[in-house]
Amino acid sequence: MKKTIFTRCAGLMLAFALLLAAAFPVTAESAVSGSKSTGIKLQIQAAGEYTNWEGVSNVSQFAGADGSYCFAYDNSKSVVIVKTRNGKVQKGKITLKKKYPLFGGVTCDSKGNYYVAWGKENSGSDTEKETVFVSKYDKNGKHIKTVGDNGSSSLAYYYDSSFYTKKPFNGGNCDLAVNENYLTVHYARGMYSGHQSNSALTLDTDTMEKVSPGSVYSSHSFAQRAIPYGDGFLLASEGDCYSRAFTVTTISDVNGGNCKSEDIFHFWVAQGSLDRWDMQAVNKNFAHMGGIASAADGNAALAGTSAKTLDEKAATAGEQLFIQIFDPKQSLTSPGAYKTSGSRTGTSGGNGDEKVTDYGVKWLTKYGKSYRISQPQLVAADGRYVVLYELFQNSAYKGVYYIVLDQDGNVVKDKTRYSKTARLNPCEMPVAVGDTVCWTGNKYKKDSTMYVYRLKLGELRATVCPPPRYK
């Protein structure tokens, strides 16, 4: 009986597979891969990127108000916004003259207004001087208003002016997110104290007035992420000391100062490193931020790479991909908050003497020592989580790979090469447009032309027979 049901199911699946093969012939790379040249020459790079410190990409990518995929690039004296449709560049590029020298990023709201984050380093010591700015433009590129901040807007009352922003986008990156009529800019910065941290500038987009959702501060912070969530935002930060972890900040009430920050994935360091002021050891956390995303069920996910252990083996082990799927409304220090399973226990903290346990850690790869994962990225699309990354074997580039998981963390498409020549946009997350994942990148060892890459998840669906039921 078991064999009969299985045989029938297998036959149906084979027939379905043959029909798909006829409808979607496989190319040299993959049936789901696709790239189109933008015709724009630009070498994409993240300014300031160094080892495990991120930088700010000169290409920012986001979804347009009409459901299109858009990107904006820093063109020295201007920022150019480009709209695409099915990978093709559309007419009507918008060119904005740069108001400040440092480019942070661009995003768009549901009305078609654009928001650009800029920065200008303060060469002096006046801590009240504004160094971070957000400009609002209408859908045609007409300037509406620019707002500046000195880095104090997301600090608790007990932080003095030495914690204000002197060097915007320093030692990390800049990420923008819009939720209804609120915008948050989560960015790295150098402070007047000489130290580094993250900060968040949050605005009411209708009035362009600053609001304070609560204190957002991690020192040091080498990567920053921001996504809309509920009525507020989810932020993610990669720290090496206070806290030495991937930290998730849940902003549930933008106007009420209702936010919480919790460390969900820790990093090992040799005991006494901070006491010895061995910053070379402290700065290295054997991990790289991927991204934070939220599927349609109200849960969220954090993905990245890390050494698997929280002991001295981390110093020599390679980094593997992991994901944690959790409910931000619960306490993230409890295993009950996680949909994925798996834990890791060891020591962390700046001095390597704090006992910690991470929950819900699902490892996605187990590459050998000759392999290296670069630019891990995460996006939620069509109710699924898509993890992308670049893979190297020794010094040879192997291409862009991806893994698809459902909302519960089950792998529905294991690691698959998307393209052996495509590159990801460094330190910038892909964009979901319906069931398609989009990004802008160059090609490996090719010219500096930018391409729009598309991964259509709809083509990954398969009919799966349910397991047989017996009485």
Molecular structure report:
There is one protein chain. The longest helix has 22 residues, at 2-23. A hairpin with a 5-residue loop joins strand 30 and strand 31 (411-419). The two termini are 12 Å apart. This protein is mainly beta. The chain is 6% helix and 48% strand. It has helices at 2-23, 279-283; strands at 35-41, 46-47, 56-57, 59-63, 69-74, 78-85, 88-89, 94-97, 102-108, 114-119, 132-137, 143-149, 165-168, 174-179, 182-191, 196-204, 209-211, 219-229, 232-242, 245-253, 258-266, 287-294, 300-306, 320-326, 344-348, 354-358, 362-363, 371-381, 384-393, 396-405, 411-419, 431-433, 436-441, 449-456. The strands form nine sheets. Strands 4, 5, 6, 7 and 8 form a five-stranded antiparallel beta sheet that branches. Strands 13, 14, 15, 16 and 17 form a five-stranded antiparallel beta sheet that branches. A four-stranded antiparallel beta sheet has the order 1-34-33-32, with no helix packed on it.
